[in-house]
Design a protein that fits this description.
Layout: H1 9-36, H2 43-51, E1 57-58, H3 59-66, H4 70-82, E2 86-89, E3 99-102, H5 104-125, H6 130-149
Helix pairs in contact: 1-5, 2-4, 3-4
């Protein structure tokens, strides 16, 4: 008897979704690097700042939200603080895990991205039906929930 899981059509389709997601991520990352450069950010800095625009979070919370390692977020957070784009605040829930939040300069840098970001997203979204985009978002949210609920056997 084989230990290999049987292939299913749904599994094959999800594999193609994963492969296209890798391609999309690469394209979006490239676009983000182009957009962030003129305002003195990188795509990674923007990603971490974006996670704390609404509320301060500990590095571990940012890492969980973004599916990044805590160590990589910590390096970026420290750089953002060093550059004056973010600051650490005391965390009433945990003495050692400080909260990260943007400074006025961090909010300003992200705000300066808005024009380029909107131009890019408007250009790309104009080529896809709005209902399809909404459906894509719903499916992506369901896939994230499924991933979060999955108990990886390894």
């Amino acid at each position: 008897m084989s230990d290999v899981e049987p292939r299913t059509e749904a599994g094959d389709v999800l594999t193609e979704v994963i492969m296209r997601t890798f391609r999309l991520y690469g394209g979006f990352l490239e676009a983000a690097e182009v957009m962030t450069k003129p305002v003195g950010l990188t795509a990674a800095w923007w990603q971490v700042l974006g996670a704390v625009l609404r509320q301060p979070l500990p590095v571990s919370g940012i890492a969980r939200e973004m599916s990044l390692t805590r160590q990589s977020v910590q390096r970026i957070a420290d750089l953002l603080v060093e550059k004056g784009l973010a600051e650490y605040l005391p965390n009433p829930a945990h003495k050692r895990a400080k909260l990260l939040r943007p400074t006025a300069a961090g909010y300003e840098a992200v705000s300066r991205l808005a024009k380029a970001q909107h131009a890019f997203t408007n250009r790309i979204s104009a080529q896809v039906d709005l209902d399809d985009l909404r459906t894509t978002l719903k499916v992506m949210e369901r896939l994230v929930e499924a991933l979060d609920a999955d108990e990886w056997p390894g």
